[in-house]
Design brief:
The complex is a heterodimer of chains A (292) and B (390). With 292 residues, chain A is mostly helical. Chain A has one domain: MetI-like (MetI-like fold, Orthogonal Bundle), CATH 1.10.3720.10. Chain A starts with a helix and ends with a helix. Chain B is α+β, with helices and mostly antiparallel strands and 390 residues long. Chain B contains eight helices and 20 strands. Chain B is elongated. The longest helix of chain B is centred in the middle third of the chain and has 18 residues. Classes of the chains: A mainly alpha (292), B alpha+beta (390). At the A-B interface, helix 8, helix 9 and helix 13 of A face strand 6 and helix 2 of B.
Chain lengths: 292, 390
């Protein structure tokens, strides 16, 4: 056997367990969901016989479009806000002295020690009409006494940003940590203003971290269920809530599956796009690195 | 030529370290000026003060008659070549060179012509589309130079630009840098710890140590007439001899007692009086070795010596001689073998001699600078040399 093919064989052998794991717990269940989505529902909450497109057809109504649109914009806005907040934080973390770096990283990670549900309930308490935040803002005259901070899309964005901010800070920090800050000096030296240097040199320098961070918020946000369920109310409903409704209220697994299929595809699409782009870039890079 | 870039009484402290200690320095227009010193002597801080990356604690930086101390780096007409080159990894060679002009919002056509011209200057027109990580060290270096020069700086600052290159490439880049300096005719401020680089490139050199300037002068002045023991020992190699002036020979020469040698003739440019203590620095290559006693002459010091150690260095051989309890380094060029006498070996009795002009009196002597001088190779099993040997 040639050495190259033997190495390839070994690579496949090594990746077999993870392939098995992925197939068993991800690919097969996903295929189940796809299959169920094409089945009719039976009146007892089970799955009927035969095949049908009806579940997908029933999705084409204005209400589900509204929810899909809301899911999309809440995810986009949350991801954008997270990135906008995480970039300066990541930059600062990479520049601050080692001692403070440890302290700040700790502060970012500490919230994870509290249960996710409890933290969201805490937000409910804070945003409640009798809660501290609402009262404080009303006292300052920033919100009217009738305005509700809870049960709307804004609350969902706020809590989503709160939840996923650490996941965006960490990859951006990791990328910034590897960034050569002398490049910023070089840019300044060549006539760039501070902000220009940041945009033209720092952001491209950490783009890998930015992409990772973006996916870390955007994809979970698309599928979020708990956050809109607790702080969203009817005005903050997302696809995740609709799926839950189909299962628990309507007792229609096929319809829930159809919605899930739409969600899975819309999550996979951006992921695949990024993968393809990266593969393309690596290919063009590796072609030349062979010459070196 | 008048001063162009000027440091006026500049100081900069980092925590407990006084990086630059009230330094005043004037660099002339068009000159290739080097800051030479060991790492941590403050030379890079001086460069960063000129670039605007550091703000001085005290003092001013003047460029072409204008106080630039308060200007940010992007407002200064100076550009820097960084030691690591700091090329933008996400941009191609072409885009790296164009960066300064793009930021300055020059027209597309202008940018194109100037970048192409720069690519020709560094002979890399065919590599314009490559990314920095596909370039060799020398190519990166050239791109860094082009990227800086395209902005037509009044002063080009170079921070150990050759340190990352291997020896042969360094020698080639030295010549290239020199040619570029001649072509563009702008002022170069060059920071290095490598005396060879500084010597071969510079019009003038400032030798720095512990945040202060020890001496400013042409390479020949620095080498031939070092004012302090630091300069003498840091640049090239030397012998330090401690002595006392015993008598004046005439207006120009005096006699110095060194150890138990009574009458060492020495050029007395410092107008020393009898009784004054002096420190002499004698370069190893100025001392002559011979098997037979050289002819007497009134300006010549002749001493018997024993060869204690020697190292063959290729073009030269270095000897450590013992005479009157002193250890003296001598460097000797090789001649064709048939002109050479019987080769000099360990423990041979020989004569060493030097002209009175070659023992140079120092203004200032510090014992620690002795550590900069090369010591003979240690013999196996011999304890660390502590100077207590007879």
């Amino acid at each position: 056997m040639r050495r190259a093919s033997r190495r390839k064989f070994r690579e496949i052998l090594i990746s077999l367990p993870s392939l098995f794991w992925l197939s068993l717990f991800f690919i097969v269940p996903t295929l189940f969901v796809f299959a169920i989505a094409l089945k009719p529902a039976n009146p007892f909450g089970g799955i009927g016989a035969g095949w049908t497109w009806a579940n997908f057809r029933s999705l084409a109504n204005p209400n589900s479009l509204t929810v899909a649109w809301r899911t999309l914009w809440i995810s986009v806005v949350s991801a954008a806000v997270c990135i906008v907040l995480a970039v300066p934080i990541g930059y600062y973390l990479a520049r601050v002295s080692a001692r403070w770096k440890g302290v700040f990283l700790m502060l970012i990670i500490v919230p994870f020690w509290t249960n996710f549900l409890i933290r969201i309930f805490a937000w409910k308490v804070l945003l409640h009409p009798e809660g501290a935040v609402k009262k404080g803002l009303a006292f300052l005259g920033l919100v009217g006494s009738q305005t509700s901070l809870l049960y709307n899309a804004g609350a969902v964005v706020l809590v989503t940003v709160y939840t996923f901010l650490p996941f965006t800070i960490l990859p951006i920090y990791a990328a910034a940590e590897k960034f050569d800050f002398q490049l910023l000096e070089a840019a300044r030296d060549l006539g760039a203003r501070r902000f220009q240097a940041f945009i033209k040199v720092f952001l491209p320098g950490i783009r890998r971290g930015l992409v990772t961070a973006l996916l870390f918020v955007f994809i979970p946000a698309l599928g979020s269920y708990v956050i809109p369920d607790i702080v969203g109310g009817p005005g903050g409903e997302m696809i995740g809530n609709k799926i839950a409704q189909r299962v628990f209220v309507d007792r229609s697994l096929p319809q829930a599956s159809a919605l899930s299929v739409v969600l899975i595809l819309s999550v996979l699409a951006p992921l695949l796009a990024v993968l393809v782009l990266q593969r393309k870039r690596e290919k063009s890079g590796s072609l030349l690195s062979v010459n070196r | 030529m008048s001063e162009f870039l000027e440091f006026r009484d500049v100081s900069k402290r980092f925590g407990a370290i006084q990086a630059v200690d009230s330094v005043s320095l004037e660099i002339r227009k068009g000159e290739f000026f080097s800051l030479l010193g060991p790492s941590g002597c403050g030379k890079t801080t001086m460069l960063r003060l000129a670039a605007g990356f550091e703000y001085p604690d005290a003092g001013r930086v003047i460029l072409d008659g204008r106080d630039i101390t308060d200007l940010p780096p992007n407002k200064r007409q100076v550009n820097t070549i960084f030691q690591s080159y700091a090329l933008f990894p996400h941009l191609t060679v072409w885009e790296n060179i164009a960066f300064g002009l793009r930021v300055a919002r020059r027209s597309k056509r202008e940018i194109e012509t100037e970048v192409e011209a720069m690519l020709r200057l560094i002979r890399m027109s065919d590599q314009a589309g490559k990314k920095p990580d596909q370039l060799s060290g020398g190519q990166k270096q050239r791109v860094a130079i082009a990227r800086a020069l395209i902005n037509k700086p009044q002063v080009l600052l170079l921070d150990e630009p050759l340190a990352a290159l291997d020896l042969k490439l360094r020698q080639r880049m030295l010549i290239e840098l020199d040619m570029i300096h001649d072509q563009v005719g702008i002022t170069f401020l060059y920071v290095t710890h490598d005396q060879g680089e500084a010597m071969s490139l510079s019009d003038r050199i400032a030798v720095m140590d512990s945040g202060r300037i020890e001496q400013v002068g042409s390479p020949a002045e620095i080498y031939e007439a070092p004012r302090t023991s630091f300069v003498a020992a840091f640049i090239g190699d030397t012998n330090f001899l401690e002595g006392e002036v015993t008598s004046l020979v005439d207006a120009e020469y005096c006699q110095v007692r060194i150890a138990d040698i009574p009458g060492v003739v020495c050029f007395n440019d410092k107008s020393m009086k009898p009784g004054n203590p002096v420190y002499l620095s004698i370069r190893p290559e100025k001392i002559h070795i011979s098997r037979d006693r050289p002819e007497e002459s009134s300006r010549r010091n002749i001493l018997p010596a024993v060869v204690e150690d020697m190292i063959y260095l290729g073009s030269t051989t270095k000897y450590w001689m013992r005479t009157h309890g002193l250890r003296i380094q001598v460097l000797r060029q090789h001649f064709r073998f048939f002109l050479d006498e019987k080769p000099i070996r360990w423990n041979d009795d020989v004569w060493i001699s030097w002209h009175g002009d070659d023992g140079f009196m120092l203004d200032r002597y510090r014992a620690v600078d002795e550590h900069l001088i090369a010591l003979p190779p240690q013999k196996v099993g011999e304890p660390e040399e502590n100077g207590g040997k007879p």
